[in-house]
């Protein structure tokens, strides 16, 4: 929680010497509070005050970085409880759990398959963030071999799951200079795990099933010189998770409670008989930072990745594409011309459909201020005038030898007005849903493919 | 170390609304459904009371729809041929409420008519003891014609009727007033529009205890985040005592979730989308489960498997 100007003032020398460039200490304090000045402007501030002020300006939830041979992931540093208050910044990482008892060949195969998984959502490529490799065998060399197998198949970040320090040590050695997340320090192994984390310069998970024990543990780890921490509050079930993660987020943001101001790691599919996709979805909306999944299934991962994308978009800015004329499947002068809006979801629904249908086409994307067809129409941002302006402005007439324009079925009412705005053009009302564009063109477009 | 947890204190609560009337109450329902009453953000039982758990409705139609996903035809099979069978199947699947949507046309393609809707509603009321919602096809004139008839036909049953929207609510509200029903008040994802329509409906004399608010949602991947945040804002306002936001919230993840390509289509889609049936079911279920956390009191679903999954989620979320 940032300090107010008055609270900062109390920590300043209060001599009004003006060396900072402001007439009084209070004026300087106000500027500091507004983040328009920096503390180093005052040469006389005490070391003690400096420490207090720096601590107060640190983010209430620490930013944690993990890194693989190639990819990197940053989690934490969230500032709000509800996305509408500002935005959620750092998407939680989705990891797949692999156990060293599965055998290196099987691990390698699984990791390769999951690593290759990639799905496009509104032009953004989404995939898994990494792997959580568990030392289930209890054998350091088996653990190292499993990590080696994963690394031969993927360059994504790793989480190492090992309860015994000697296992963890073997695991870290097998990570060869990358930056894994170590899971986990507990009350029993804290000192040894802290040593390992410090040496490896790797972030460390603190695990305990009660908040006070968890806070004591993080304090202990910090005292041992490990600053980059992640919390595993050992949550189970929908209700247990929701209550624990809500409390933790509130403690950090509302009470500025440092010992628990770290990202949270969860295992939605482990034990408890929960429905993994649905509990993982809860963890995405309500405050998890790292989510370790038990199973790899594109039919689950794809919706989870989309949910994560949706919850973490900036509520102030709809995702948009650049207005203009887009060429799909190398269109020529006979190809159909379709018009849509520049809201990303709308554009990609249409573009993907046309592309998939195999039809070459010109897609005119009108500037509708990033709104869907009906939203833009209702807001007056996708009317006959705007559509006509796009068609003229983007020089569509010069690209094709016909004068036929297909509009979305949802704005069929615009066809009359559009014919007036675009003299000579024939307005064709397309289907309501993009899925039906292929069959529509087949039936209605006079010139064929 | 003892840690003092942060608890929010609310000054307001969600209104309690009951759908359906039993024999004693002038209807024929075997049971009623009460929504709302909560005094804290969803499921945070450590700082509030939750007298009524979120409810799950299944959507049925007055006749078999022709544009649903093949997976839904598989799930309901023959039952879709007859609204009474469909209602019984929905009750057997565990629904708390039957959400009957009237079609714009009759089987032959001619426009739907009041007499047909009356007959369907009568049939459905006889087939199930569950409380019932009945909404029109979404075309103002036809909605009014059909819903007024339905309201008369089921006088005293305390149906949830709709859909009231800002351009068309008066006739439906009048029908609810005259025949002792409740209404669904729907606005497009906007806090102020939600409040306004509740005020307009209330101004016509309908008690607030008979209004269910539908703030509208989009499906996962198709605008869910807008609906989610509007619902969170409405619920926060309700708990802070803003009276006209205190209606229980209904949303329709079934309709939205099954409209999108991910659930509708199994062929010609990227391999990375995975198994069609599991993906489609996840699409509806994730949309619905997410909306529970933004404050939904009543979720309208389409697939019985989604209802089964959501029931387990809710059971755990409200467990003592
Ligand atoms: C999300 C949403 C919003 C978001 C905006 C999201 C955005 N960036 O556009 C917010 C909350 C901001 C919003 C605001 C409003 N909204 Co709004 N909103 C929706 C909602 C829920 C989903 C829209 C969506 O994203 N659809 C997904 C996209 C992909 O669909 P689409 O663009 O139509 O594209 C599809 C088809 O049209 C087709 N297609 C697209 N292009 C083309 C081109 C061709 C050639 C063809 C053939 C097909 C085709 O393919 C796509 C996939 O099938 C709808 C209701 C609903 N469930 O549909 C209401 C809805 C569109 N909104 C509506 C309204 C009224 C508004 C507001 C005016 C009201 C208000 N709240 O103040 C404002 C206006 C905005 C403003 N003044 O700033 C109404 C419109 C009613 C009407 N018929 O006029 C709707 C229908 C809700 C309702 N039932 O009342 N809205
Ligand atoms: S330099 Fe420091 S002591 Fe001097 S006026 Fe500025 S804040 Fe006060």
Task: Outline the secondary-structure elements.
The complex is a heterodimer of chains A (449) and B (320).
Chain A: H1 5-11, H2 25-33, H3 47-57, E1 64-67, E2 72-75, E3 93-99, H4 104-116, E4 119-121, E5 124-126, E6 130-134, H5 140-153, E7 158-161, H6 165-174, E8 181-185, H7 190-200, E9 204-207, H8 211-223, E10 229-232, H9 238-254, E11 265-266, H10 276-285, E12 290-293, H11 298-311, E13 324-328, E14 337-341, H12 344-357, E15 361-366, H13 373-378, H14 384-393, H15 396-399, E16 404-407, H16 415-421, E17 426-429, H17 437-444
Parallel strand pairs in A: 3-6, 3-12, 6-7, 7-8, 8-9, 9-10, 11-12, 14-15, 14-16, 16-17
Antiparallel strand pairs in A: 1-2, 4-5, 13-15
Helix pairs in contact in A: 1-2, 4-5, 5-6, 6-7, 10-11, 14-16
Chain B: E1 17-19, E2 33-35, E3 55-61, H1 70-76, H2 83-92, E4 97-101, H3 114-127, E5 132-135, H4 140-153, E6 160-164, H5 170-179, E7 182-186, H6 191-203, E8 211-214, H7 224-239, E9 250-251, H8 253-259, H9 261-264, H10 276-293, E10 298-301, H11 304-318
Parallel strand pairs in B: 3-4, 3-10, 4-5, 5-6, 6-7, 7-8, 9-10
Antiparallel strand pairs in B: 1-2
Helix pairs in contact in B: 2-3, 3-4, 4-5, 7-10, 8-10, 10-11
Bound molecules: cobalamin (B12) and iron/sulfur cluster.
In a few lines, what is going on in this structure?
Chain A is of the alpha/beta class. Chain A has helices at residues 5-11, 25-33, 47-57, 104-116, 140-153, 165-174, 190-200, 211-223, 238-254, 276-285, 298-311, 344-357, 373-378, 384-393, 396-399, 415-421, 437-444; strands at 64-67, 72-75, 93-99, 119-121, 124-126, 130-134, 158-161, 181-185, 204-207, 229-232, 265-266, 290-293, 324-328, 337-341, 361-366, 404-407, 426-429.
């Amino acid at each position: 929680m940032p300090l107010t100007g008055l609270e900062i003032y109390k920590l300043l020398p209060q001599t009004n010497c003006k060396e900072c460039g402001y007439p009084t200490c209070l004026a300087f304090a106000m500027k500091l509070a507004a983040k328009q000045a920096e503390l180093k402007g005052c040469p006389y501030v005490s070391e003690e005050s400096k420490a207090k002020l720096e601590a107060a300006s640190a983010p209430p939830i620490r930013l944690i970085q993990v890194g693989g041979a190639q990819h990197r992931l940053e989690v934490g540093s969230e500032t709000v409880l509800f996305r509408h208050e500002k935005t959620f910044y750092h998407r939680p990482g989705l990891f797949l759990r692999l156990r060293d008892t599965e055998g290196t060949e099987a691990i390698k195969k699984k990791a390769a398959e999951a690593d290759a998984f990639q799905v496009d959502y509104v032009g953004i490529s989404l995939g898994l963030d990494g792997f959580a490799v568990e030392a289930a065998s209890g054998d350091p060399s088996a653990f190292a071999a499993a990590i080696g197998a994963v690394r031969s198949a993927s360059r994504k970040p790793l989480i190492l799951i090992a309860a015994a320090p000697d296992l963890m040590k073997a695991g870290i050695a097998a990570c060869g200079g990358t930056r894994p997340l170590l899971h986990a320090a507990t009350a029993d192994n804290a000192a040894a795990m802290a040593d390992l984390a410090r040496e490896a310069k790797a972030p460390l998970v603190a695990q305990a099933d009660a908040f006070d024990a968890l806070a004591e543990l993080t304090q202990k780890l910090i005292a041992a010189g490990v600053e980059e921490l992640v919390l595993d509050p050992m949550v189970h079930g929908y209700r247990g998770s929701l209550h624990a993660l809500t409390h933790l987020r509130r403690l950090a943001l509302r009470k500025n409670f440092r010992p628990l101001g770290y990202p949270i790691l969860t295992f939605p599919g482990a034990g408890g008989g929960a429905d993994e996709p649905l509990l993982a979805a809860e963890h995405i909306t309500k405050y998890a930072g790292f989510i370790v999944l038990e199973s790899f299934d594109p039919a689950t991962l794809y919706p989870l990745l989309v949910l994560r994308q949706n919850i973490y978009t900036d509520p102030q800015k709809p995702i948009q594409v650049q207005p203009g004329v887009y060429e799909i499947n190398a269109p020529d002068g006979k190809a159909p011309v379709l018009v849509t809006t520049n809201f990303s979801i709308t554009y990609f629904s249409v573009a993907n459909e046309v592309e998939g249908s195999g039809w070459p086409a010109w897609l005119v994307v009108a500037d509708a201020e990033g709104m869907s067809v009906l939203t833009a129409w209702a807001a007056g941002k996708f009317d006959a005038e705007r559509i006509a302006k796009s068609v003229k402005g983007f020089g569509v007439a010069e690209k094709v030898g016909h004068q036929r324009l297909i509009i979305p079925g949802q704005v069929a009412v615009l066809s009359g007005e559009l014919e007036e705005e675009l003299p000579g053009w024939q307005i064709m009302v397309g289907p309501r849903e993009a899925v039906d564009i292929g069959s529509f063109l087949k039936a209605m477009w006079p010139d064929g493919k | 170390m003892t840690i003092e947890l942060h608890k929010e204190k609310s000054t307001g609560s969600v209104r309690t609304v009951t759908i359906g009337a039993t024999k004693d109450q002038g209807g024929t329902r075997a049971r009623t459904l009460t929504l709302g009453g909560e005094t804290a953000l969803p499921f945070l039982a450590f700082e509030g009371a939750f007298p009524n758990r979120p409810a799950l409705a299944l959507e049925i139609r007055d006749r078999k729809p022709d544009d649903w996903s093949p997976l839904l035809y598989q799930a309901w099979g023959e039952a879709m041929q007859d609204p009474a069978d469909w209602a019984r199947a929905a009750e057997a699947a565990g629904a708390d409420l039957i959400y009957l949507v009237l079609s714009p046309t009759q089987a032959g393609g001619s426009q739907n008519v009041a007499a047909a809707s009356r007959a369907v509603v009568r049939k459905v009321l006889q087939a199930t003891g569950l409380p019932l919602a009945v909404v029109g096809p979404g075309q103002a004139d036809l909605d009014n014609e059909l819903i007024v008839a339905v309201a008369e036909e089921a006088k005293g049953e305390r149906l949830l009727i709709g859909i009231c929207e800002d351009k068309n609510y008066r006739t439906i509200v009048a029908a609810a007033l005259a025949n002792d029903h409740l209404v669904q008040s729907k606005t497009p994802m906007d806090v102020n529009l939600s409040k306004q329509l509740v005020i307009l409906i209330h101004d016509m004399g309908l008690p607030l205890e008979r209004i269910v608010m539908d703030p509208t949602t989009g499906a996962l991947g198709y605008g869910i985040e807008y609906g989610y945040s509007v619902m969170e804002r409405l619920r926060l306002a309700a708990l802070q005592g803003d009276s006209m936001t205190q209606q229980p919230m209904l949303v329709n993840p079934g309709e939205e979730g099954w409209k999108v390509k991910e659930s509708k289509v199994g062929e010609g889609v990227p391999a990375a989308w995975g198994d069609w049936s599991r993906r489609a079911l996840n699409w509806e279920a994730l949309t619905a489960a997410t909306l529970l956390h933004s404050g939904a009191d009543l979720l309208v679903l389409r697939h019985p498997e989604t209802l089964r999954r959501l029931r387990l989620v809710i059971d755990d979320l409200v467990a003592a």
